[in-house]
Known about the structure:
By secondary structure, the protein is mainly alpha-helical. The chain has 20 helices and no strands.
Amino acid sequence: xxxxxxxxxxxxxxxxxxxxxxxxxxxxxxxxxxxxxxxxxxxxxxxxxxxxxxxxxxxxxxxxxxxxxxxxxxxxxxxxxxxxxxxxxxxxxxxxxxxxxxxxxxxxxxxxxxxxxxxxxxxxxxxxxxxxxxxxxxxxxxxxxxxxxxxxxxxxxxxxxxxxxxxxxxxxxxxxxxxxxxxxxxxxxxxxxxxxxxxxxxxxxxxxxxxxxxxxxxxxxxxxxxxxxxxxxxxxxxxxxxxxxxxxxxxxxxxxxxxxxxxxxxxxxxxxxxxxxxxxxxxxxxxxxxxxxxxxxxxxxxxxxxxxxxxxxxxxxxxxxxxxxxxxxxxxxxxxxxxxxxxxxxxxxxxxxxxxxxxxxxxxxxxxxxxxxxxxxxxxxxxxxxxxxxxxxxxxxxxxxxxxxxxxxxxxxxxxxxxxxxxxxxxxxxxxxxxxxxxxxxx
Length: 443
């Protein structure tokens, strides 16, 4: 097989992506809205759907021998960035398993204890920001902090949609920025950039959005005359692993070293404080790692499928279409953002959206002169914007179901108007693209 041949544009090569979107989105809509299955999108075996799509990719282009197709797949899956991504996923899963629920709750209770009651909703937002940055999971943050938000709403008089919307916004902030978030891992490795570089580029968009959101929440909260809130006991020592991971990532220490420090400090502190016994901890570590299985399998299958799509000319066809629609510095960057946004709307999973869009985005970036850190930032940011507001996403569904399990009734459409952070983040992203992106020489 000639590695140096020029690949010709071939729109038919994109068929496997179309098959995936039709099967996954179609079944998701049927399950969720026609059959009324709770969290219907997440009942679909996404690995099986990707296997079907990969099969479609294999049967295309009969001019290429099957063994040559396997070679293309092996080259894609065996890429250094893919292997690195998988190892980081596993280490991050172990870290989350070690730190556990009590550490996240300690953040919220500490902040509630040192702030006035009228600022409780702002505290929920800040706590969700910190926990999600430290844990690297928006869904995990929502699962842990929404019960606190429900309790705050019950005792304070703040509206439940406002409390939950603030938690969801903070959760998406951390999902976007965390060094151990699967979205960050996928975005950085697919674009070939260092995590600290992506963080710095991303921070320019996310921090202004978070500050505007916080100010908006405080304005809405001030003068409401809410009741005093008495948080339960908490242990600040449990915050240490999170802080170590956060600081280590920001200063640029290797991500594996950072995660190992977080894991071992978490083990020591959990055993010292009696939060977990050794047997429970081992079980949680195993559960955390195995919880990454689906994400890892999706990464492998998408890498294999994209390798064949690229070989058959699908990416060239997609780039040709993007060239026709998006022009210049602004158009190229919007193209990356809207590409991953469309994938997220179709899959309702921002990690899967990034994994699917990543190889295409890299081609777009090379075409339009977008730096790897900027491309990774755009992928992660726009995926979080869309994932943060779709009513059938895991974040929204879990927030609503958690509240209902605690005896509070709330709907996704009541929460949507209170999702200030994703809306502000979208505005900040567009402002950044129009006025700042690509104008300075890459450092």
